[in-house]
Amino acid sequence: MYPVDERDKVIELEDVPQSSVGAPLPIVLSDEFKILLAYIAEESFPRWDGTTVRKVGADTPSESLALAEFESYWSYMFGAPNDEAFCGHPLAA
Question: Which among 39, 47, 3, 48 is positioned nearest to 19, based on CA atoms?
Fold first, then answer.
């Protein structure tokens, strides 16, 4: 990991759909100018009681997808630390 300095900061994206908590299946496409991030968005099912499991995959029909576009970036890293390693991330505070 690179050394963190005062120019590094976390910016919460408030107006983007929540990714699926079960299987977001993110896809990143990038070139020198743009990053595209596509993922399965979380949907709420009003009558779901949490006792069943729904299998989701790349071929699952009728999934809501989100697409985020980022420009003017220096670099990017794919993936965040999991719950056990999050406290060790340089920007966790």
Answer: 39
List the Cα angle 24/26/32 in 5-degree steps. Answer: 160
Pair 42, 20: CB distance under 8 Å:
yes
Compute the C-alpha angle 51/56/61, nearest 5°. 120
pTM above 0.70, yes or no: no
Token match 């670099």: residue? Answer: 75
Between CA 35 and CA 67 the distance in angstroms is 10
DSSP letters, 47-64, are: T--S-S-----TT-SS--
Q: Which two tokens stand for residue 78?
A: 């794919």
Using DSSP, state whether 86 is helix, strand or coil.
Answer: helix
**Residue 67: what pLDDT?**
92
Helix (H, G, I), strand (E, B) or coil at 33: coil
Q: What number of residues does the chain have?
A: 93
